Amino acid sequence: MKFMKLGSKPDTFQADGKCIRYVISDLATDVTIIVGEVKFHLHKFPLMSKSNRLQKLVLKASEENSDEIDMVDFPGGPKAFEICAKFCYGMTVTLNAYNVVAARCAAEYLEMTEDVDRGNLIFKIEVFINSSILRSWKDSIIVLQTTKSLLPWSENLKIVGRCIDSIASKTSVDPANVTWSYTYNRKLSAPEIIVKGGMKYQEKIESVPKDWWVEDMCELEIFLYKRVMTAVKSKGRMDGAIIGEALKTYAVRWLPDSVDALISDVHSWRNKLLVETIVCLLPSDKGVSCSCSFLLKLLKVAILVGVDDSAREDLMNRISLKLDEASVKDLLIPARSPQTTIYDVGMVHSIVNQCMINEKCSQDLDLGKNDVGCTDFVLGHGSLLSVGKVIDGYLEEIARDPNLSLASFIDLARSIPEFARPVHDGLYKAIDMYLKEHLSLTKAERKELCSLMDVKKLSMDASMHAAQNDRLPLRVVVQVLFFEQVRASAGVQSLNNNPRDASRSTTNTEEEWEKTAAEDCNSIKKQMNQTKIKEGEFPKNGKFLKKDSRNSKSGMQLLPSRSRRIFDKLWVVGKGHGENKSSETSGSSQSPTSMVPGDTKSAASSAKHRRHSIS
């Protein structure tokens, strides 16, 4: 810390209690100056030789036959006046970063200018501030902190502005050129000399991080911090990521951890101001510089402290631009009254919708430039895939809420486009959780809920689980079983037709599997509609038996035991002639008739037999 000594005479000021200060001298004091609650018994001549204002006040007191002068609203109080008085007496005075602003404001109040005496206190303090204080990183911050209690004097004397400019300029210095100590207790390490074999090998100097100034700035009050950060941003030389890190560090430093402390009457106003200030200072680079996790945490605090709508919407827009980086935990925003749900699902839905709008605008821009289709856009930008995954996880979490309406769940699930959800395992887990926690759903509601899921996009493990899930509608279970058999059939057929490409077939993409499965599905359904099933192939007990097909045994082994039991219940043999109308299950686009490969050929050869309906 820099300091400056003024004067050479010994300090002879003495105290008599807390409210009386006097000077030890052979001459009796002839004037009493009152500053606050302290009375200074001093001599007129030394004071009048340095202060123009004291000259006027002493003259006025003499005309009133009084020896007391009351200094009203004296900047810096008794301590600042004592510094000025000692300077007038020529006594030793030490100025430093903690008292220099008070001394400067007091000298201004007393009009201790060069017009009164050459080399007066104002001149000396200005030299000290400009040549020492403002050149020091730590001293500039300390001085700026002390200006708060001396407003508006410190502002009018431009001390605040000069300190802010000094600090902002130093933050822009190349870290390689930072030679001063920073972060108060953390000093730069001395060059480390590495010696090998008794000889100097190289010097290793600890590098200074780019955000070396962030921690020191956290010591500033919110008003001063805002002004400094505004100055840092206005210079245009600071990377947005560092500014984002600085704001995050400041928020962690000043925002309390507990919810009760956040919303307490004592600190609620300060916390609200703090959040609004941080939002105002966020970099204008569309949220790229700040992590999505930090923005979501800031949004949660903003809701708790009740910030205005503009700040909250700004945060939501920034979050929508980085939603692919979010985690399920960060998205769990507590709901506020009068909402009855545990989490604010509506706010997350709004963020997702804004995210989709942003992606659509970006997609349109790309289409205009490169004439690239939607699929190419998604393949080129995997962010939407991450958004779909995190929202499915969020749906699974909020599905546990008994007060969450079915409409809210469905609306949020549908806000994710199909191409952003290539696999429906996460959505299936969310639907299953909702069914588990909401047992009172009607059959129509369960059907509507399960319509969100495409069974063709379930993995093998998810399909096996769904096939044995009693909570799912029977129609969905049949669809799962049907497509799994079609997919298995497609795999077997591919291996039989292309034995040399067997190893390569296992690495097919999801899109290839879906294409193959769809073709097989259409082919099998077409054959099923053109053929009749032999009555003798279905015994009365309903178990599936095949006499003439060599592939039936291997085909049946592809189904789990529970799946076969379900089919035992589904197949009913009718004895009348003609074609019966199929039920809801058989009437779906994914009929279970094609579950067993190889059967359609046999069925086609027996067209003379009766056709039985599937109920």
Topology of this structure?
Elements: E1 3-6, E2 13-15, E3 20-23, E4 31-35, E5 38-42, H1 44-48, H2 52-63, E6 68-71, H3 77-89, E7 93-96, H4 100-110, H5 121-131, H6 137-146, H7 153-156, H8 159-171, E8 192-196, E9 199-204, H9 214-217, H10 222-235, H11 240-254, H12 259-263, H13 268-281, H14 292-305, H15 309-321, H16 328-331, H17 345-370, H18 374-380, H19 383-398, H20 406-414, H21 425-437, H22 443-450, H23 460-467, H24 474-497, H25 502-505, H26 510-530, H27 552-556, H28 561-570, H29 599-605
Parallel strand pairs: 3-5, 4-6
Antiparallel strand pairs: 1-7, 2-3, 4-5, 8-9
Helix pairs in contact: 3-4, 4-5, 6-8, 8-10, 10-13, 13-14, 14-15, 15-17, 17-20, 19-21, 23-24, 24-26, 26-29
Supply the key terms.
two-stranded antiparallel sheet, five-stranded mixed β-sheet, single chain, 615 residues, 9 strands, Potassium Channel Kv1.1, Chain A, alpha/beta, NPH3/RPT2-like, disordered C terminus, ubl conjugation pathway, BTB/POZ_dom, phosphoprotein
Please, could you describe this protein's structure?
InterPro entries: BTB/POZ_dom (IPR000210), NPH3/RPT2-like (IPR043454), NPH3_dom (IPR027356), SKP1/BTB/POZ_sf (IPR011333). One of its GO terms (cellular component) is membrane. This protein has helices at residues 44-48, 52-63, 77-89, 100-110, 121-131, 137-146, 153-156, 159-171, 214-217, 222-235, 240-254, 259-263, 268-281, 292-305, 309-321, 328-331, 345-370, 374-380, 383-398, 406-414, 425-437, 443-450, 460-467, 474-497, 502-505, 510-530, 552-556, 561-570, 599-605; strands at residues 3-6, 13-15, 20-23, 31-35, 38-42, 68-71, 93-96, 192-196, 199-204. 52% of the residues lie in helices and 7% in strands. The protein has 29 helices and nine strands. Among the domains are: 3-157, Potassium Channel Kv1.1, Chain A (2-Layer Sandwich); 212-321, no CATH class; 322-363 and 378-453, no CATH class.
